[in-house]
Write a structure and sequence with these properties.
- This protein has one domain (2-371).
- Helices cover 77% and strands 0% of the residues.
- By secondary structure, it is an all-alpha fold.
- The protein has helices at 2-18, 22-47, 50-59, 65-89, 96-107, 120-129, 133-157, 166-184, 186-195, 200-219, 222-249, 256-276, 284-295, 300-336, 355-367.
- The two termini are 25 Å apart.
Length: 372
């Protein structure tokens, strides 16, 4: 079994190295997504009458911008906390600076179809500490899973705004719950997978598959799952409040109803963008935001302006932060050409860290009560 595991880890390393620098791999796709994003913003400006939108923008209280971006930053900070804890819980802990750099770099990867580019965070962790990609890949997926569950709850709290959306929310909730169940039944699935080890193809990937499943199972333990969803409720609720501030700045009276409608609209539109598997949810999220605002009686011009502003303050703000992280982290990291290295500017542990240290890290994750 040990030989198979060594073979699997080596295979994962070769696969990751084959990608080369993620900057090179993703640059073309992100460039195309940027062009699509510009086209979407232009379409929104045309939809809302560019002259009226410019007038709304001129009258917008730009002194509120720090508060709006601050609420978005709160979302990112809480999501980073979840990422950092997840790494610890699966025995792949990174120092805070390195962990934050990898997480922030992942924000730019939302401009890949279905946000699948975020899986490159697992490659970066492998480069930093040598942890097999199969161990940390469930972390990336669990981030999306718990974010989705949190947004379903937030949207459900305001479903009275748009009752026709209930079947959509129910379908998304069913799909996400099914994924949780698949990870939860790990103790029953492991013996079954071992019985299939005789298959030539499966025998090669079995160690990676077992590590993947074990990490996923650990992350859906009751405490871990509820804690992550709770963080998601606060983080995505903060962005909903930022949307309410934007709507208020465009002339809609601020009250409890506005906050409820803003949180629902942003959560529902974000889910629509996610299930569309389009880069960054482009087109689907913008159409959902503007459409839901129109359903609520908001004028076309204000709906288009609010959609442009909230997407700039969330999606594109995050992409800008991610681009800065890529410029800082990735080039130096890839020049080193190996795992467990000390990239310039990152306060990492001693690069000479041995296997005993990694084993200790893994044991710490297993012994942590929060890790289930």
């Amino acid at each position: 079994m040990m030989d198979r595991e060594k073979l699997s880890v080596g295979s994962e390393a070769e696969s990751a190295a084959a990608f080369g620098s993620p900057v090179t791999v993703s640059a073309r796709r992100i460039g195309l997504s940027l062009l699509l994003g510009i086209a979407v913003l232009a379409a929104l400006m045309a939809f809302g009458d560019i002259h009226v939108i410019v007038r709304h923008l001129r009258g917008f209280p730009w002194g509120w911008l720090p508060a709006i971006l601050g609420l978005t930053l709160l979302n990112y900070i809480l999501r980073f906390l979840k990422w950092h804890l997840y790494l610890r819980w699966v025995g792949a802990a990174l120092p805070w600076p390195a962990s934050a750099a990898v997480f922030t770099a992942g924000l730019a990867m939302v401009l890949t179809p279905g946000k699948l580019g975020e899986t490159v965070k697992s490659v970066l962790v492998w480069r930093l500490r040598g942890t097999p990609i199969s161990v940390t890949l469930p972390v990336v997926l669990a981030e999306r899973l718990t974010d989705g569950l949190a947004m379903v709850v937030l949207a459900g709290l305001g479903i009275s705004v748009y009752p026709a959306g209930l079947p959509v929310l129910s379908g998304i909730l069913f799909g996400l719950s099914l994924l949780v169940l698949l990870a939860w039944i790990w103790p029953q699935a492991e013996p079954f997978l071992h019985r299939l080890a005789g298959w030539p193809i499966l025998s090669r990937i079995l160690p990676s598959l077992l590590r993947f499943y074990e990490s996923a199972h650990r992350l859906v333990q009751p405490f871990n799952l509820l804690f992550a969803i709770g963080l998601g409720l606060i983080s995505w609720g903060a962005e909903g409040l930022a949307f309410a501030l934007i709507l208020h700045g465009l002339g809609i009276p601020m009250d409890r109803s506005l906050v409820q409608r803003a949180v629902f609209t942003l959560a529902f539109a974000t889910l629509a963008g996610a299930v569309s598997f389009l880069p960054g949810g482009l087109v689907a999220a913008e159409a959902s935001l503007a459409g839901l605002l129109l359903v609520q009686g908001v004028s076309r011009e204000i709906a288009a302006t609010a959609t442009v502003l909230i997407r700039l303050a969330t999606l594109w703000f995050g992409v800008a932060l991610g681009a800065l992280a890529w410029a800082w982290l990735v080039p130096g990291l890839w020049r080193t050409g190996g795992a467990r290295v000390r990239p310039a500017g990152l306060n990492l542990a001693d690069p000479a860290m041995g296997a005993d240290d990694e084993t200790a890290d893994s044991r710490e994750g297993r012994d942590d009560p929060a890790g289930g």
